[in-house]
Design brief:
The chain is α/β, with parallel strands linked by helices. It has a single domain, classed as 3-Layer(aba) Sandwich (Rossmann fold), CATH 3.40.50.300. The chain contains 7 helices and 9 strands; from the N terminus they run E-H-E-E-E-H-E-E-H-E-H-E-H-H-E-H. The strands form 2 sheets. The protein has a 5-stranded parallel beta sheet, sandwiched between helices. The protein has a 4-stranded mixed beta sheet with strand order 4-3-6-5. A hairpin with a 2-residue loop joins strand 5 and strand 6. Helix 5 crosses helix 6. The longest helix has 15 residues.
Length: about 200
């Protein structure tokens, strides 16, 4: 696998178990006044149908399964995963175009995607793992997010979280999300430090 040419922008990759708060932290970072005009959300490809209120190019790039396979075969997708029968991936030309324009990007990825981008962009990628305060707290968060979640689904997510936590040491930073405001402040500090502000 060849490494990509060095570009100026940074890629902030945020991972963590379901219920760790990674998506909330990313949303808050993108709205933060100190990071405005410095950080943009990387827009992923998906084969999932567009939901009400979603916009092409803002929320996702919506493609058919055949288009996704074609792009992947042509090596135009840097990393991808399948979730709930739909494919999600990072488009090579989109990411590289943004980085050339000195835009720092942020996105949530699973372990496999995070490590793949880190390998492809060793000078640019910054990996951040969001840890829950404890497994018990994580279980409460998962149960609280949707009262209709079946106990076996909660157990499956908790089991997956335990496996994910074993890989936290492979990330550049580990951010414990015990208190959302403190975790947000720490994430902002990491981003500002890495982009040299």
């Amino acid at each position: 696998m060849r490494r990509q040419k060095k570009t100026t922008g940074k890629i902030f990759i945020i991972s963590g178990p379901s219920g760790s708060g990674k998506t909330t932290l990313l949303k808050r970072a993108l709205l933060n006044k100190s990071l405005k005009n410095k950080l943009a959300k990387s827009v992923s490809l998906t084969t999932r149908p567009k939901r009400s209120g979603e916009r092409e190019g803002r929320d996702y790039f919506f493609v058919s399964p055949a288009e996704f396979r074609q792009l992947n075969k042509a090596k135009k997708i840097l990393e991808w995963t399948r979730y709930l029968s739909y494919d999600y991936g990072t488009k090579r030309d989109y990411l590289e175009d943004k980085l050339k324009k000195v835009r720092h990007l942020a996105l949530c990825l699973d372990l496999r995607g995070a490590l793949k981008l880190k390998k492809l962009y060793p000078e640019n990628a910054v990996t951040i793992f969001v840890e829950p305060p404890s497994i018990n707290e994580l279980r409460k968060r998962i149960e609280g997010r949707c009262s209709k979640t079946k106990p076996e689904e909660v157990d499956r997510r908790v089991k997956l979280a335990v496996a994910e936590l074993k890989n936290a040491h492979r990330y550049d930073y580990i951010l414990k999300n015990k208190n959302l405001a403190k975790a947000e402040s720490r994430l902002k500090g990491i981003i500002l430090k890495e982009i040299g502000v």
